[in-house]
Amino acid sequence: VGPKKEVAECKEKFASSVDPTVSQTFMLDRVFNPEGKSLPPMRGFKYSSWSPLGCDANGRCLLAALTMDNRLTIHANLNRLQWVQLVDLTEIYGERLYEASYKLSKADTPRGELGDFSEFQRRHSMQTPVRMEWSGICTTQQVKHNNECRDVGSVLLAVLFENGNIAVWQFQLPFLGKESITSCNTIESGINSPSVLSWWEYEHNNRKMSGLIVGSAFGPVKILPVNLKAVKGYFTLRQPVVLWQEMDQLPVHSIKCIPLYHPYQKCSCSLVVAARGAYVFWCLLLISKAGLNVHNSHVTGLHSLPIVSMTADKQNGTVYTCSSDGKVRQLIPIFTDVALKFEHQLIKLSEVFGTVRTHGIAVSPCGAYLAVITTEGMTNGLHPVNKNYQVQFVTLKTFEEAAAQLLESSVQNLFRQVDLTDLVRWKILKDKHVPQFLQEALDKKIESCGSTYFWRFKLFLLRILYQSMQKAPSEVMWRPSHEDAKILISDSPGMGSTEDDQEEGTSKQASKQSLCDTGKGMDIDDTADDSLPQSSDIGGREPMEEKLLEIQAQIEAVEMHLTREHMKRVLGEVYLHTWITENTSIPTRGVCDFLMSDDGYDDRTARVLIGHILKKMNKQTFPEHCSLCKEILPFTDRKQAVCSNGHIWLRCFLTYQSCQSLVYRRCLLHDSIARHPTPE
Fold first, then answer.
1. What burial letters (b/e) apply to 157-186, b meaning 16+ CB within 10 Å?
2. What is the phi-psi region of residue 29: left when phi exceeds 0, alpha when psi lies from -120 to 50, beta otherwise?
3. b (16+ CB within 10 A) / e for 438-475
4. Rounded distance, CA 42 to CA 283, Å?
5. What are the pLDDT digits (tens) for 152-167?
6. In b/e form, how buried is each residue of 234-272, taking b as 16+ CB within 10 angstroms?
7. Which whole-number Å values give the CA distances from 503 to 81, 493, 563, in the listed order?
8. First-last CA distance in the chain
9. Which has fewest Cβ within 10 Å: 123, 337, 343, 377?
């Protein structure tokens, strides 16, 4: 807020002021006194916000964290389980204000000196964050020197301050630190005592619109325009839109914006829901020829206590709210001719967990789980002596619903639907078989469209089935062993699934708490203790071993199909882009020979493509050589290359090159590697 020496003098002056309105206000405000002297220290976090997927150097999420002493920082998970602070936005914003003499625009009249208490308060409130939220990723195209188009991504972080101003930071992706900050613009919202912030993102006729929804502790809610001149194809509102203007003293606790399709108007629309006291305020925004239509109302009679947390499933628009008495409400929007109405039902957590107090809820990306933070409730009218905070996971979908959603998914990516696959995994591990209806539906999908997504789904099911049949290991698999023995990396198809589940293992209990607890690093084999009959007779074991061999053969067949499809993609890339230096080191001839070596494999597309490539290569072979003995590396196996002197090199799963460097990337979910150590 000013030079250190001057700030220290002012603090001393205000603390010892004879005017109690100054001295007491100063001493009791933790923004001015983060150290607090006799008061408890300001440790911990006020608020945190996750960026969309694909923002850091590894293609993962960034975490914006607001500490109790009002410092806003951005962190990234660069190495496994290690979080690093990339930038301190509070410090950078403070420097910008200091350089601009604490004026937001050049037209602003100069204010008083720092010694004036009102100016001291103003300088603090204009840089004390209340909330921060990330926008979706904005993508523009940049033309490179070789006339190729490259997608350049950027993301916005909106920071709401105590005085109602909003700073909109633009970051270039991947975000690496201070050098990735593109711009910072400040918007004046005009809202007194702001409490919550959310991005409004709406798509109409292939035009993306954006704005910021701001709620006040006094009641009003409004959308502010955000001008994104730097991003092509993005539009905003011409002027602010007031969604609720009454100062009814019902503070806005949280806001969610859900994109939906209107079945009657046959167009996309935007549903904004806000928790206000014990009520839910909703507003339906719809762009028509007449302009922006706004319908709003409140849903009452949900909770007897104020709503402490709200979350929304963005796939179907279902909203979940909870109050501190352990009651969760599910609100399902139903469209009418004019606007919409909500059907709501009660989820009593006390029936599952006993009497509990709830502190927060969140729904998983595809709506499979509801995470609830709970502490013990009152017993015999008495509060518990100690509070033990727990995160409980409640299943919101059945296995059949999860399987149907995976089969009909428009995302076509198992990684982005990991909560649904988790439900499917648990069912197969428990029952030790894949249900017939799922097998038949999946086979039909594979026959009708043949997308690699369904083949991957089939591979996932087979791997989990293979794992459910295996005996539980005598010792915990994820615990590191301290033996110095050299181990050859196994090609067993079971390896992929066991590692998969150690990373994202599930531990389910079929007791009253059918509501589960999924956590990283748990040992999946808790559920599979009785996976094999413990009979000692050999006759009982043989059918199980035969079944394991049969599943293993199916796994290898599906893996081979996926490998061939990927090889065709790699060859197509090489054929179209021969001038790219990296493509010249791909063992093209070896891949072609590998595809043609199997007489049973008759793919016309592959034959035509290979014919074109061999014509282009004109009898040249470009073989790979072993870096140790300079012998030729033959292409006989998709997983590894072995030279005539017995040197073994693993093959990159993306390019099929032999990895002869010391540094490469390894997939945590499967026993495969990638040649480039940095992810794309």
1. bbbbbbbbbbbbbbbebbbeeeebbeebeb
2. beta
3. beebbeebbeeeeeebbbbbbbbbbbbbbbbbbeeeee
4. 37
5. 889 999 999 999 999 9
6. bbbbeebbebbeeeeebbbbbbbbbebeeeeeeeebbbb
7. 12, 17, 24
8. 41
9. 337
Residue 435: both structure tokens together? 């249900």
Q: In Å, how far from its chain's centre is CA 88?
A: 22
Give residue 319's region: left, alpha or beta (phi > 0; psi -120 to 50). beta
* Other beta carbons within 10 Å of 94: 17
557 domain-assigned: yes
Residue 267: in which H helix or E strand, if any?
A: strand 267-276
Give the C-alpha separation, 114 to 7, whole Å: 8
Residue 581 inside a domain? The answer is yes
pTM of the model: 0.81
Compute the distance between CA of residue 478 and CA of residue 464 in angstroms, rounded to an integer.
17
Which helix (H) or strand (E) segment holds residue 295: the answer is strand 291-299
Domain that holds residue 435: 398-469+552-622
| Total count of domains within the chain | 1
Residue type, 347: I
pLDDT tens track for 87-125:
999 999 999 998 888 887 766 777 778 888 888 888 889
> Token pair for residue 359?
């502190």
- The residue among 84 and 115 whose pLDDT is bigger is 84
Q: β-strand 624-625 against 632-633: which pairing, if any? A: antiparallel
Q: Do the domain assignments include residue 407?
A: yes
Per-residue pLDDT reduced to its tens digit, 388-417: 999 999 999 999 999 999 999 988 899 889
Angle at 284 between CA 282 and CA 285, to 5 degrees: 135
